[in-house]
Automatic annotation (TrEMBL):
<keyword id="KW-0472">Membrane</keyword>
<feature type="transmembrane region" description="Helical">
    <location>
        <begin position="271"/>
        <end position="290"/>
    </location>
</feature>
<keyword id="KW-1133">Transmembrane helix</keyword>
<feature type="transmembrane region" description="Helical">
    <location>
        <begin position="50"/>
        <end position="70"/>
    </location>
</feature>
<protein>
    <submittedName>
        <fullName>Plastid triose phosphate-phosphate translocator</fullName>
    </submittedName>
</protein>
<dbReference type="Pfam" id="PF03151">
    <property type="entry name" value="TPT"/>
</dbReference>
<feature type="transmembrane region" description="Helical">
    <location>
        <begin position="90"/>
        <end position="109"/>
    </location>
</feature>
<feature type="transmembrane region" description="Helical">
    <location>
        <begin position="178"/>
        <end position="195"/>
    </location>
</feature>
<feature type="transmembrane region" description="Helical">
    <location>
        <begin position="201"/>
        <end position="217"/>
    </location>
</feature>
<feature type="domain" description="Sugar phosphate transporter">
    <location>
        <begin position="57"/>
        <end position="350"/>
    </location>
</feature>
<keyword id="KW-0812">Transmembrane</keyword>
<feature type="transmembrane region" description="Helical">
    <location>
        <begin position="238"/>
        <end position="259"/>
    </location>
</feature>
<dbReference type="InterPro" id="IPR004853">
    <property type="entry name" value="Sugar_P_trans_dom"/>
</dbReference>
<dbReference type="InterPro" id="IPR037185">
    <property type="entry name" value="EmrE-like"/>
</dbReference>
<dbReference type="GO" id="GO:0016020">
    <property type="term" value="C:membrane"/>
</dbReference>
<dbReference type="InterPro" id="IPR050186">
    <property type="entry name" value="TPT_transporter"/>
</dbReference>
Length: 367
């Protein structure tokens, strides 16, 4: 059951600006979900009473729904604004802005979320993570503007391969032979899917690859950041960490937007005020983007690493197939085969990764 006080609202707008569908309003939904679900201290008792964690299923469903609608509204906003030749950087920046406003609203609203107690030095330390987050999101939006949603998702599924290469070369992390072998189907599947892409675009391939590079850097920098003594306690929650990263990313993206598309911002604002499909989908995509990422953190808290890997893999399959059907994108047998192999490789890599980490923890406990 959704929190009391939500209202019906359009999920996304069609090319003529009309609402295509509607359901419970998004505003306030994510901030209240954590309170509506069983608390961590009561989780064990709840599992004894019920064989199934229905709260987890609700969060998973909303996470998938949020990711699905983010991709739909994002693509519709980009198409309505002219695609790759339009305003992808402006849209990416304003999506951060929508998320930043929502995060601030949760801090100001009574009993919604406790504000972090960080210093200016702490904020500066979050800079590398926020820069990488800015690059990952902006490049992903560019990829969506240049190609199909399904193709961009397939390329982004190869993120573990980028993470392995960058981790070993830049951050001097170790990758086991089993994990390197698991990357073979990931890379092979992406290559096969690229051959089967009916609307192949080099720009989409390159920008999705850049998004993977920034995402890999973000993961490593975030790990370093959270190892800073006392920082995690000062931030307070994972939700606060994401909120701070979103706000800082908006501040980093703003000058890039002005440099890249500032000369035609007047044209964008005219388009946004006269074409409801642009403004409506821009706002909604920003809310969906922030919301589904917060829901992902709730899933991470309520599940173990393996379950999270399964859920994330299933999410990619649903987004690739369902969004392709809704948006009328081609799904040739070769593309389907490539995406299946690639995503299966990602799942295998994730499982091996968790097993390796589990063994390391057991060894450290023995020592």
């Amino acid at each position: 059951m959704l929190p009391k006080g939500t209202r019906g609202g359009a999920l996304y707008a069609g090319a003529d600006g009309s609402a295509l569908t509607s359901e419970e309003g998004l505003k306030g939904q994510v901030g209240a979900i954590a309170d509506a679900l069983p608390k961590a201290g009561d989780e064990a008792a709840a599992k004894k009473k019920l064989p199934v964690d229905f709260g987890l299923f609700v969060v998973l469903a909303l996470w998938y729904l949020g990711n699905y609608y983010y991709n739909i509204t994002n693509k519709l906003a980009l198409n309505a604004a002219g695609g790759a030749a339009g305003f992808p950087m402006t849209i990416a920046t304003l999506q951060f802005g929508v998320g930043a406003l929502y995060a601030i609203f949760l801090w100001l609203a009574p009993d919604a979320r406790e504000t972090p107690k960080i210093s200016f030095k702490d904020w500066v330390k979050m800079g590398p993570v926020s820069i990488a987050n800015t690059g990952a999101h902006a490049a992903s939006v560019f990829a969506l503007s240049a190609g199909s949603v399904s193709f961009a998702q397939i390329v982004k599924a190869a993120e573990p391969a980028f993470a392995a290469v960058i981790g070993t070369t830049v951050y001097k992390t170790k990758v086991s032979k089993a994990k390197w072998l698991a990357l073979i189907p990931v890379i092979g599947g992406v290559c096969l899917a690229s051959l089967g892409e009916l609307n192949f675009a080099w720009a989409a391939l390159i920008t999705a690859g850049i998004a993977n590079i920034f995402a890999a850097i973000k993961g490593n920098e975030n790990k370093k950041l959270m190892e800073t003594p006392g920082l995690k306690d000062r931030i307070g929650t994972v939700g606060n960490q994401f909120a701070l990263t979103t706000i800082t990313s908006f501040l980093f993206a703003l000058p890039l937007m002005l440099i890249m598309e500032g000369h035609k911002l007047g044209e964008f604002f005219t388009l946004a005020t006269t074409t409801p499909a642009v403004l409506n989908n821009l706002v909604l995509s920003g809310l969906w983007f922030y919301s589904y990422n917060e829901l992902a953190t709730i899933v991470a808290k309520k599940t173990n690493a393996v379950t999270q890997s399964v859920a994330n893999t299933a999410k990619r399959v649903i987004v690739i197939v369902v969004v392709a059907l809704v948006m009328g994108e081609g799904l040739s047998p070769l593309k389907l085969a490539g995406s299946t192999i690639g995503i299966a490789g990602v799942f295998l890599y994730s499982i091996i990764d968790k097993l390796v980490e589990s063994r390391k923890e057991k060894k450290s406990l023995v020592v």
